[in-house]
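Box 3.1. Reading complex inputs
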Amino acid sequence: MDITATTVPRVRRIHRGLFLRNLLYVWCAVVFLFLMAPLIVVFPISLSSSEYLQFPPPGWSLRWFEAYITDSTWIDATWRSIKIGIWTTLLSMFMGTALSFSQVRGRYKGKSIINQISLLPLVVPMIVYSISVYGLFGYFKLIGMWQVIVLGHTVHAIPFVVIIVSAALRTFDITQEQAAMSLGASRATALWQITLPQIRPSLVSAAFLAFISSFDELVVAMFLGGSNMTLPKKMFDNIVNEIDPTIAAVSVIQILLVSLILIIVSKLGAGATPSQ
Amino acid sequence: MTEIDKIKLGSWWRRNRDNATSMFAATPAMLFLSLLYLLPMVLLLSQSFEGSSLQHYRKALTDGLYVQVLLDTLMIAAYVCIACFVIGYPVAYFLSIAPGVWSTIGMIFVLLPFWTSILVRTYGWMVILGRNGIINRTLLHTGIIDTPLALMNNITGVVIGMVHVLLPYMIFPLYAVMRRMDKGLAMAAEGLGASGWQVFTKIYFPLTLPGVLAGVTLVYVLAIGFFITPALLGGGKVPMIAVLIEQQVHTFLNWGFASALSLVLLTATLAVYAVLRRVLRGNMQWT
Amino acid sequence: MGALATAKVMKSLPEIALSVVSASRRYGSVIALDGIDLDVRKGEMLTLLGPSGSGKTTLLKVIAGFEVPDEGEILIDTKNVTLTPPSKREIGMVFQNYALFPHLTVSQNVAFPLQMRKISKFDIAARVSQILSMVDLAGYGERLPRQLSGGQQQRVALARAIVFGPNLLLLDEPFGALDRKLREQMQLEVRRLQQKLGLTAVFVTHDQEEALILSDRIAVMDAGKISQLDTPQAIYHRPANRFVADFIGESNLFRATVIAGGYAELENGINVKLSSEIPSTGTVIGLVIRPERLRQAEQGSIESKINGLITEIVFLGETIKYRIRDELGFEVLVRWPFLSNEKTLQLGEQVSISWNHEDMHLVKWL
């Protein structure tokens, strides 16, 4: 067989392969830019000296950061969101982790129905849920209390916790628990000393996800918060009413905070188990 | 009790103790979800039949205005879904084949926006797309256009904003499937004489179908119920159904009608979910 | 109730470390254990041997306490532990995948059972270092499991299982993941340790060679029942039935019919003399003879039982296996030491085989 007959098409194929590969890289670069664009954009706006949305900013100033920190309504809203977020995390982690163990280890009738129910909040649109609890809590005149927002947020955080923790439990080697028990540990001791430390990265991820889902949540907070606003609600009002670029400063703070937490979480997660 | 009975009881308990504990562990969550999730939904259902009449449903489903809103919602969600798929598929592929460092960097580009508040992101888009926004000012400044482009307060803006939010939800399921793909299959196909295009259409793409359908389902179902992005980037001119519902509650105080609309939305969501899941299961007989 | 009490009295003999009494376990319609009775003597190494699905792992789990039998009892050192959880049975278990705690060091792993028993830190440190020396891992205390080789991990698992002086050592196919040489090494080490410490051990495996090497006694299991419980030699030379004969080693199994005068007729027409326990005439029986028990006979001599051609040769280093087939299609397998290239037979060569009738073992054919 003539060698050139096979090498020529091969060379063409290699060129085409390279072309497609470069095309892929360009495509991804553009998409990554697209994804980061709105995040990048808020930075200069937050440092703008102008009261209006001007780009490029006429001058630089930290006034909007000052405005955020000195404005008690902003700070109140922030603390309220943090408080709600922490409670949501605690409740959903407790119930969700217990539920995960039940799902992965247990064998009983109705297990799959319970699984469906626990994942239902993911499917149903937030607006539908918000209306439904608005009716319920409105009837009991509980609108405006931060505790009911915690309840609403916890409902939506539980599915996330269940998905993440169940996945970790399923891949966990159960013979280790059995080994611990054969060596004299009660089931509770085995869980505490052997299992939980090893699923810690997933527990941390789940907690993070639960917190963020509450901290950033707008719709439920909008309906149940009344005049006591959470941070997202205040941000929403601010945007709708186009008041001033304080919202940009808040956005920057949020982005930095999220990045920081992501770094902390990945360090915490990585340190837990030596990867094998 | 005879000794045999005692032993039998003890044996039953020892064998079922673990399962009993498991059931017990599920109780807090189940109680919580029943009271705070299932119960309100049931109440919502009863609310929509205000005075045991179907008037709200009749209005929601027959009044041309509202039917149009529903259809628009479904359509916009479809645009968003298709856009996410076309844009996201290559990105997921890249992430699945890129060597360690690059794949981590790429993931950061996807994860960071994903974790950032939707409000922050939507605000950022308002800054970019507005009449005085970055795009328009740059284009006007360089003389490429004379009048500002209407990139906001219309479907375009809403779609861009929604695609930005929902893209990670398309990328993650695709990435998960692609990552587990046996790279040897493409080589085997090539060795058997398949051209690059054939390898893609006959081997690679079909094997990514589970991820495709997971991503498409997730994005579409989420898109239908979207509130924040259409509300802010639509400027009141893009009525998606969630925006409409909020309006009915807070502006028109029409509680019963809002409930009916919510249930129409819920039904549509569940229907889409069920249909797509059926398609998903039907297509994947080899798994 | 009387029968159970009597059984209990009988089982309280001090030489019996473990008693399984009529244990049964079902999973739906699958019978995993079918009325198992088993006594393990103090200080002995008893192997549960069988193919997958035979129930050997289930039996081990029942002994350990991870499964509770539907019927029957487990007695460890004369105490009824059927309903006791595994953590209180004072057993040491080595798992198939070692189940070492990856987030703890070797020392911490080994110290774990001692911590569970609330032993003082000082004593723990002493015992841990003592046991690590015993398994040749002195100085490895601060390493993490993932930093150790397979064989080393195995030894940590073993150390962890015996450091607290259990009544019973249970091993669930622990050598499966090791390569051949390492496996042989570990087999001998475990055996040595078990004998030195006088530990009673129950070992589960599907590898019959391993069972023959390690055990004081073997319980061959098949479909939830014990087919034969005996010493390795007895099982090898006098298998109780076809299943055991087939499972243990390679053997020739001939179908024969009993004829008058204490003889049986093989399928190729040759008559062979039967030794003890001759069943009634006309019974179909199985005759088992191990390949190394056959010898080459003079061509055409009276004692030759099979005359055939060599159809297959397998070289095994120390030995050679030949498969010989006569004109009627009757086949026999022989295994002889490899002496030299000249003495080796060739394919297609004509050869005569005979054997001593005492080397034949009778089993039921059904």
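In summary: Chain C has nine helices and 20 strands.
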